[in-house]
Amino acid sequence: MKHVFSVLLWLISLGAFAQQPELRGQVIDATTNAPLPGATIQATGNRGAAANEQGQFTLRVGAGETITVSSVGYTTQRVVVPAGGTLTIALQPGENLLDNVVVVGSRSSSRTVLNSAVPVDVLPMGTLQRTLPQNDLNQLITYVAPSFQSNRQSSSDGTEHIDPASLRGLGPDQTLVLVNGKRRHTTSLLNNQGTFGNGTVGTDLNAIPVSAIERIEVLRDGASAQYGSDAIAGVINIVLKKNTNALEQQLTGGITKVGDGKLLRYNANYGTGLGTKGGFLNVSLEAYTREATTRTQNHNLLLFDQSAQGNFFAYDFTDNPAASRAIDDQILAQRGLSRDDFNFHVGDAGIKNANLFANLSLPLANGKGEFYAFGGYNYRRGEGYGFRRLPSSPNQMVYSIFPNGFQPNTLSDIQDRSIAAGLRYRLGEWQMDLSNTLGNNRFDFGVSNTVNASLQQRSPTEFKAGGHAFTQNTVNLDFSRYLKGVANGLNLALGAEFRAEQYRIRAGQEESWRNYGLQTAPNGEVTNPSGLAGGAQSFIGFSPANAGTFGRQNVALYADTELDLTRRWLVSAAGRFENYTDFGSTFNYKLASRYTVTEGFNLRGAFSTGFRAPSLHQQHFSYVSTTILSNGRLGNTGFFTNDSPLAQALGVPKLAQETSRNLSLGFTLRPSSQFSLSVDAYRIRVENRIVLTGLFGFDPFGEPVPAIQNLLLPFEASGARFFANAINTTTQGIDVVATSQNTLGQGRLNATLSANLNRTLADDQFNVPARLEGQEDVFFSPNERGLIETVNPRQKINLLLTYSLGRFSATLANIYFGEVTRNGFPFGPVQTFGGKVVTDVSVSYNLLKNLTLTAGANNLLNVYPDAQAYGNSYFGVFKYAPVQMGMNGASYFVRITSVLGKQK
Fold first, then answer.
1. Beta bridge partners of residue 421, listed in sequence order
2. Whole-angstrom Cα distance, residue 513 to residue 515?
3. What confidence tens digit (pLDDT) does each residue in 742-762 have?
4. How many CB atoms neighbour CB 879 within 10 A?
5. Rounded to the nearest 5°, which phi and psi values hold at 647?
6. Which of its termini does the chain have fewer beta carbons within 10 Å around, N or C?
7. C-alpha 871, offset from chain centre
8. What segment(s) does the record annotate as region Disordered (predicted)?
């Protein structure tokens, strides 16, 4: 460790020797001369600053260097630094997000959203964080980017603690996430509880504090040829803050209209300069606690004789139980009980979250490069709800502990760690970037308020159920160069990547997974004379048979070029070769072009091939438990790996890569400085898409299938699920973004209308192994089809209005979430939930120069999804499904923001 500190001190001392003039300046509105706080000033070598409340900034740059100055709602300018060391930059109103300089999707340093060959959204997180009601990153992006969708799940084990997300209607594992242009690791959680993203592994965006983010770039186009596996739907690049000499703090309190879900959130960001040549260290802290919500409807009880235990109550299975309510209430009163003793809790999990993130740059003394590093630590503790166990289910009960039944709690203990470090250096005409990025996600499960019924009165009521971890280490070596003499300019980028990954499953304590009532007869047959269920109710722990450590490596080579054939015509091409130790090699390419028809009107289009390697989770996840089947016999059911003898007996092949073809066509239009429009249509074809199968051994209604049961018999299994390259899908859609900035009275009105229209369909022909022909409805079930085709809104439209006048600003957003369709749970009807409009509002006022108060509401009009059909509501418990915008209704917030010091 002392050597690490020595290296850091040496680098800092190098920076201290570098003497370079300090540029002091101010950014103002060209029409009103008003300062523009938050304006971004960017120089080469990752050096930058942000203007303070007076529009002032300080930056170490040399005379003759070119800086880029931008601000939301204004035209970006590139300015040559004068010799005098002072500068005033007047930006013209009218710029929109189409004109922001972007990093993702282009390795050129001069591309903007407007002149790029593929669609990119730029989300200014500093502004959004201060004004919008949403608090975590997933929800913020959902409410401002129509092509992105994420909502919280309920009663779904780990998935209610890490939110799955979608870009352009594809799965969570088909979007690649970058931080400062470097690959971000995924979580260790594999979603497997029948929610959106079932069978996939995503990236936990909420592990990054919002206060650490300068902006987010969303590349809405296939980019596997540029960035590698997972980029079928696109890329999300999170750009961290670089500002210095200011402490920004924010405190938010919130509550739902019902009175639950209380939120208390604190975040802070501080930056300090290092050395004398523009070095910096920017640190962000976030901590919040969010209480659980519950949205169940009043349920009814039905008289049920369990006199041996003295329990008389069971859940009502009738559609009209009103006739029994009076009788039930009378009996409950006689026993000193009420309906509250049998309540179900269904809603968002309670979360406690703490984040720490840092971003570092140390320019070298010779001015040819910089050492950089960034990363952070996230800890999250969650408590969610399992299904209630009723006293009328004796095989699940320990009446001496829970005489009236119980509702288990699913506990999460999640740690997420990342660190990236690298060196950018100029080698003649080439820019070199050598980096190493290490990330780890660890998820430990707990279960409380529950029992292992096979232990009866000896059972604990809280269990450590084991967990999983995923580690990824990525080494990148990149070279880029701009050649002025080739046509109108050529940007050339070459690179190599080495990635090592490890996935691990850890067993829980023995009581969490073992059935202590099993007996083995002399003939070897295993029986359960007591009929009591084993393992922790609600979440059976991982057993030693599930545990293991698995790894793989990947090597990639890529080339990425952008050629301006003329001043108006840009063409680009990229190719990437990758080799995985666990499934082989692949080569993918991308071609794109943009043509400027007239000033302000661009046509653009792209075609690319893509791929996604099956994750280690999908290849090695195993979760098998002994359960009582519908025929009363014991059987091992659960998830089996594709290389298991059981999979081979059924003819289930090993997993292969998903492949894709992505076509996009669109245009950008800016007829004036006050208005801009972009329209992009796309078609994404994914072949050999990996899905989670149904339970083989049974038909879709839970009845045994003798032919399959006979195949499973030698393996002592009664039901088995696998991952399979089961289907081919086609996704088609269109994205529209229109922005307008106008003077209204003495103030300014900014408006953004954005929309995503999207449809994903699976082919009717499945990739079914020969031995499983006739089992198509299990191999790719109607429920799985619904989770891919219709569980996300096919239409999403966002109208965002922001008005500012002096110290006052107000934001109004109306978001339309289109209809969604869900298959029944567990065997209810297919149900379509109608489209809904959610209205958000917030008002901000600068109490002092550096102190702002904001108040507002999410879902101001208290809109809920359509109520579930009775057959889908688990006998009336789940009144609302977690679809579209979630099921919490209205919530309110108050936020205070302070800035101490002068940002540079």
1. 373, 436
2. 7
3. 888 888 899 999 999 999 999
4. 19
5. -65, -40
6. N
7. 31
8. 150-169
Angle of CA points 580, 583, 584, to nearest 5°: 60
Tell me which residue of 443, 439, 377 sits closest to 190, measured CA to CA: 443
Q: How is 194-235 classified by DSSP, letter by letter?
A: SSTTTT-----GGGS-GGGEEEEEEE-S--HHHH-TT-SSEE
**By C-alpha distance, which of 847, 750, 893 is closest to 53?**
847
Domain 120-299+343-901 fold is Maltoporin; Chain A (2.40.170)
In 692-851, alpha helices (H): 706-712, 776-779, 782-789
Evaluate the CA torsion angle 684, 688, 692, 695 in order and state its sign: positive
Host H or E run for residue 556: strand 548-564
* CA 375/CA 360 separation, integer angstroms: 9
CB atoms inside a 10 Å sphere around CB 369 = 19
Residues belonging to the chain: 904
The pTM (predicted TM-score) of the whole model is 0.86
Q: What CA–CA distance (Å, rounded) separates 574 from 225?
A: 6
Angle at 119 between CA 117 and CA 120, to 5 degrees: 115
| pLDDT value of position 795 | 95
Which amino acid belongs to residue 448? S
- Taking the CB of residue 192, how many other CB atoms lie within 10 A of it? 21
Domain boundaries, the chain: 17-93, 120-299+343-901
Q: Where are the alpha helices (DSSP H) in 514-640?
A: 616-620
The H or E element spanning position 28 is strand 22-29
Low-confidence residues of the chain, pLDDT below 50? 1-19, 94-99, 301-320, 631-632
Distance of alpha carbon 226 from alpha carbon 560, whole angstroms? 7
Contact 281, 274 (CB under 8 A): yes
Q: Return the pLDDT at 20.
A: 54
> End-to-end alpha-carbon separation of the chain, Å?
32
Q: Please check whether the two domains, 17-93 and 120-299+343-901, share a CATH topology.
A: no
Structure tokens at 600: 């302000």
CA angle, corner 83, sides to 78 and 86, nearest 5? 70
Residue with tokens 């802290």: 285
DSSP 3-state percent helix, strand, coil across the chain (nearest 5): 15, 50, 40
Fold of 17-93: Immunoglobulin-like (2.60.40)
Query: How far is the C-alpha of 92 from the C-alpha of 89, rounded, in Å?
Result: 10
Q: Which residues of 622-652 are buried (b: 16+ CB within 10 A; e: fewer)?
A: bbbbbbbbeeeebbbbbbbbbebebbebbeb
Residues ≥6 apart with Cβ < 8 Å to 416: 187, 204, 207, 377, 378, 379, 380, 439, 440, 441, 442
Question: Cα(206)–Cα(208) distance, rounded to whole angstroms?
Answer: 5
Question: What's the CA angle centered on 670, arms 667 and 673, to 5 degrees?
Answer: 160
Backbone angles phi, psi at 779, to 5 degrees: -60, -45
What is the pLDDT, as a whole number, of residue 827?
A: 59
What is the predicted pLDDT for the residue at 514?
92
